[in-house]
Amino acid sequence: MKRIFNLLFLFVIISFQVGAQLPPVKQLITILISPDHADWQYKTGENVNFNVTVLQNDFPVENSTLSYEIKPEKMDDIKSGEVQLKNGTATIKAGTMKKPGFLRCFVRVTMNGKTYEKYATAGFDVEKIEPTTSLPSDFTEFWENWKSKLAEIPVEPVLTLMPERCTDKVNVYQVSMRNIDGKIYGILCMPKKEGKYPAILRVPGAGVRPYTGDPETAKEGFISLYIGIHGIPVNLPQEVYDDLAAGALKNYSKASIDDKNNYYYKRVFLGCIRAVDFIFTLPEFDGVNIGVTGGSQGGALSIVTASLDPRIKYLVAFYPALSDLTGFLEGRAGGWPYLFRGDEIKSKERIETSKYYDVVNFARFLKVDGWYSWGFNDNACPPTSTFAAYNVIPAKKELHIFQDTQHWTYPEQQEMAKEWLQGKLLNK
What we know:
The protein is an alpha/beta fold. The chain is built from ten helices and 18 strands. The protein has two domains: about 30-130, Macroglobulin (MG2) domain (Immunoglobulin-like); about 140-425, 3-Layer(aba) Sandwich (Rossmann fold).
């Protein structure tokens, strides 16, 4: 039993480290909802119907009322109402969109005093979604300047062996290195067997937490470096991170957003480059084959790192955050952390700063092969924002859509991404 508990705990930790939520737990009432096109995609001006089935014990629910709301992602309702279930099913005529984007249908049913909800999302001409943000004329100059400043700072890596995490095939270290201000920390996992190995940089999803590293990938013959972004060790007791998340690092994603030279993500982006610097100091690294991967905030950091650092050869990004941040200013969904949604301050300084950190503007300069994946139902990193970034990528790219996923991934997605990245790094 102890071994089973440990395996379940490890699975939960790994899921959080890739910036994803666990798939939802099955409930007593099951709601099935989908658009009436199998690929969930439509042309602008084409009407979409959402088909709904409500089940209890896998049997259709009779004589219940279904309420619904139709809205673009993160926007107000444009249509709402009720329909009566017949043989457990109903069809909702949602209408269409006149511009490329996504239309979402929420449905709710109340049974025995408990309300159950689910939603599905139809995409309209998604390959034509264009960014709302713009590219500053000095974007490249800005980042080259900060990269030059970082290069003046020695890496000064410190590796501390973690014997309790090592295995017969893998050594595990906590590592630290100097960043543009302060340090960056991570967990390094390396094969014990003597040789030269390709490397994978894993960049984290949003939040403040410890990390266990990725010994499984190291066991398969790769150097794996999993970094934190907050300049604090990544192996402290959980309560330390809880206190920081509720205090000093609360809302870190918006810290100093009115100053492009001091916005929080400046040190984060440069820290990712510094992590690459560190990998290149390792004698076990083969000196050439290196990829970067992550989801959500980590998806954003994967694109940013590959764009800023030509040493990166491949990238895998799941539902990248920080994409098309100004979407809300144009009446559509913008990317996490929703800098301009609702009552957020919409000053000129904030808007201008956002352009230097928007993933869209890094995506414009990508030159390496990339593997990307997300779902139409993602309510944390809206697909309007992620498509705005993906559609401007000039490099070789492939997109794997799993339409019904929200801010989580299927095991099959993770396996596909792993096989693609490891195959590329091994030149297969």
